[in-house]
Q: What sequence folds into this?
């Protein structure tokens, strides 16, 4: 099993260099994410989900792999731009800015703020900047309120809106609270994690062993929607949360959720994980449902590595090999670096972009870095600090 | 050329019966659009773009094909529901309602109102209801303001938002104003059509002979975006507008736009019209860009029929045959009626729904009815009144 070596090479020789070489905007700050296969910019806007995610990613590499100045510099270039231009007067984050930083589009969702928060916190860990850490934590509580009251983000509260919780909201609360709990022993963050673990049960389909996208009625398409990538990512987020709430039964359930999602989400005819499925086999509303996207596969790779590191059971190695083989043969681009993002059901690339308004420097390097950490920890070689 | 007979059979034996049999909600009003291949309801929400479109469609059948009571009844069932539940206190239209009529989602766009307006106007033509006609016309002027000032719909005016006009806005203004101008000689509607014809020039790419989705800079992906279906539909909307502004040079340009869109938008490898393309071959942002959807093909069929009826040139018959063959072999469902909506690039169905939140009783029957009218007009048989 030479995964660790391969992942390290992919990360350090092909993925991170692609972003450092092509994406940073030294003139106006921030980074470009709309890059062609070769790394040419085809849209100069700055998409804020991805600005925050890259701050987090470069800071994490600096904190956990090695303290390279160029990684911290890249994080700072993006963070400064994000903090200078990303927010409106009420502290809500835009979805996109022009290259220069003028607000371009506002989405009535909390996720741009989530990734800004995670980026600030990780950068603060790197630099020891207590004021920035406090700013991140203050934003965490704001986001929690926005999730409870979406009207604060401008989304009208309508009497007939489906009454469902979104798995995505549990996921972002769990990931943020886990990161804070690692540096702050205040019990309130552990309480949020308890809430997330409990709330996730309403999304869990025991028969199929998967997390559903929305809790509640199965009469609406949303209530039948299963996103293998989200289900798997939610499971590993919650496994991380168990650091603070050890619970063997819950651990078994979360491992089951990874396996169940792989089994139900895998296309037995053409291989790969579907983007969306209706669990009753009815038509899903998103047109791109049967496509194969890069990120469910990165989540599945890390989740199987994590599951193997926790259990040492062979079944995880079988899934790891299957997903790794599909992902590297369809998405990795040894010639130009970073990964392609989008295949049709049969596995043909539908476009060759390396990034766009939702794909940036995040899922691929995060998977590689975290898998590397787990794999090195297991084989006895130096675990990244 | 037995297109007319085939289209009449498709319309009256397979398309309209599908909707009449499966979609009408006799209990709460309105109609369901989320129907499986066989006509089972998989989402009971009422999507308002489609409610308005069906009112228009059933009224148009009644007005132009024959005055069947069941068509007018269907239109009334949907219109009553739409008028009772569709609007907020400021007269803005929701995107979706629950089955019972509670507001479910609000979209910051004017299009739900556009189709409500068209439906009311056509129903008023059928019944001679002057108050309803006035209500429709009043709504037309509201929509025009909303298009000029999207902030009135709750979309914040941001300093960095791309300064572009949307082809869709020209299209809806042209289609509404044409319908009004046919029953109201007030010169203001003809002035709107003059504005539309002039504004369309900023979208016209003379080299490729296509209408671009957005006017303005080609630096952003939106500025390079070409939707063959919209380009073709815009061309035939504007050809209709020429009823009120005869202009041979403009007619030639619009015919060129139909031909250019077919040539540039046609997939020479797998057949069919792409959904979206970047004219410079860069990656388009919508994930579903290279899919083949039913409606660009319905627009192309009617546009080629219209072009042939205006010119009697053989080139249009060649395109009609090619598009008709692709559309009927991929989308039509002789077994259960109505058409499938979504294929991947290779032409495989990606789901088998007959309707969803954006597909209802509209594009297929509109194409069949209008093509029939043109074809019958040409062959000398009784033209529908």
A:
């Amino acid at each position: 099993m030479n995964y660790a070596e391969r992942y390290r090479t992919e990360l350090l020789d092909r993925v991170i260099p692609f972003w450092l070489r092509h994406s940073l905007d030294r003139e106006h700050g921030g980074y470009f994410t709309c890059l062609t296969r070769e790394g040419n910019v085809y849209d100069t806007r700055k998409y804020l989900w991805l600005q925050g995610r890259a701050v987090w990613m470069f800071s994490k590499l600096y904190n956990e792999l090695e303290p390279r100045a160029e990684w911290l510099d890249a994080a700072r270039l993006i963070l400064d731009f994000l903090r200078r231009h990303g927010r409106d007067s009420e502290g809500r984050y835009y979805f996109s800015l022009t290259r220069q930083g003028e607000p371009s589009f506002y989405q009535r969702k909390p996720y741009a703020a989530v990734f800004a928060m995670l980026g600030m916190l990780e950068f603060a860990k790197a630099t020891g900047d207590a004021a920035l850490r406090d700013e991140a934590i203050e934003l965490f509580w704001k986001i929690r309120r926005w999730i409870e009251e979406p009207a604060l983000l401008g989304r009208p509260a309508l009497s007939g809106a489906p009454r469902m919780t979104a798995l995505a909201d549990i996921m972002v609360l769990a990931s943020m609270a886990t990161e804070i709990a690692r540096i702050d022993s205040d019990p309130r963050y552990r309480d949020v994690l308890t809430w997330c673990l409990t709330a996730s049960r309403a999304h869990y389909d025991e028969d199929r062993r998967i997390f559903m996208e929305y809790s509640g009625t199965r009469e609406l398409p949303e209530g039948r929607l299963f996103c293998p990538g989200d289900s798997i990512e939610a499971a590993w987020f919650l496994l991380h949360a168990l650091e603070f709430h050890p619970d063997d039964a819950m651990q078994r359930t979360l491992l089951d959720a990874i396996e169940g999602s792989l089994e139900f989400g895998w296309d037995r005819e053409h291989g790969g994980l579907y983007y969306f499925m209706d669990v009753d086999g009815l038509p899903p509303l998103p047109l791109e449902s049967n496509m194969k996207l890069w990120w469910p596969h990165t989540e599945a790779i890390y989740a199987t590595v994590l599951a193997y590191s926790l259990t040492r059971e062979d079944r995880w190695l079988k899934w790891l090999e299957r997903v790794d083989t599909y992902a590297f043969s369809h998405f990795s681009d040894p010639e130009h670096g970073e990964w392609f993002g989008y295949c049709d059901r049969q596995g043909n690339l539908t476009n060759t972009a390396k990034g766009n308004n939702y794909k940036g420097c995040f899922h691929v390097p995060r998977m590689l870095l975290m898998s590397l950490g787990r794999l090195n920890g297991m084989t006895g070689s130096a675990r990244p600090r």
